[in-house]
Amino acid sequence: KRAGTGYTTYNEAIVTDALASWKKVALFFHAARCPNCIALNENIETNFTTIPEDTIIFKVDYDTSDDLKETYGVTSQHTLVYIDKDMAQVNKLVGPTTLDEVLAGFVK
């Protein structure tokens, strides 16, 4: 996926830019060995075009992102953390199965 689009690999600089542009940001803690993560990833990629323009979901590698896991209290893969412009957590979902569920997790 391209940087700045609705679904892309985690990159701190891109997250910072997205938040500065008042975009809605979610961090998807994903592990390659996790069947539920793989299924959600496929659902997001299949329905990619329905992600609103003001929203970006970042795919975070669960196995290599210890600092982020500690910051947001993530203890299992297949977790989504929603953050505000100050990178503070505003919501958390564990185990959503579809992009619609992911998008519903954004605080209105």
Q: Could you report the average pLDDT, rounded to the nearest whole number?
A: 92
Global outline = globular
Write down the Rg. Answer: 12 Å
Q: Which regions have little confidence, pLDDT < 50, spanning 5+ residues? A: none
Quaternary structure classification:
single chain
N-to-C CA distance:
26 Å
Query: How much helical structure, as a percent, in the residues?
Result: 25-40%
Query: Which structural class matches the secondary elements?
Result: alpha/beta
SSE series: EHEHEHEEH
Q: How can the largest sheet be summarized?
A: 5 strands, mixed
- Got a strand count? 5
Taken as a percent bin, the fraction of beta residues is 25-35%
Describe the 3D structure.
With 108 residues, the chain is α/β, with parallel strands linked by helices. The chain is built from four helices and five strands. It has a five-stranded mixed sheet, sandwiched between helices. A hairpin with a 5-residue loop joins strand 4 and strand 5. The longest helix has 12 residues. The radius of gyration is 12 Å and the shape is globular. The protein starts with 6 loop residues before the first strand and ends with a helix. The relative contact order is 0.24. The model has no long low-confidence stretch (mean pLDDT 92).
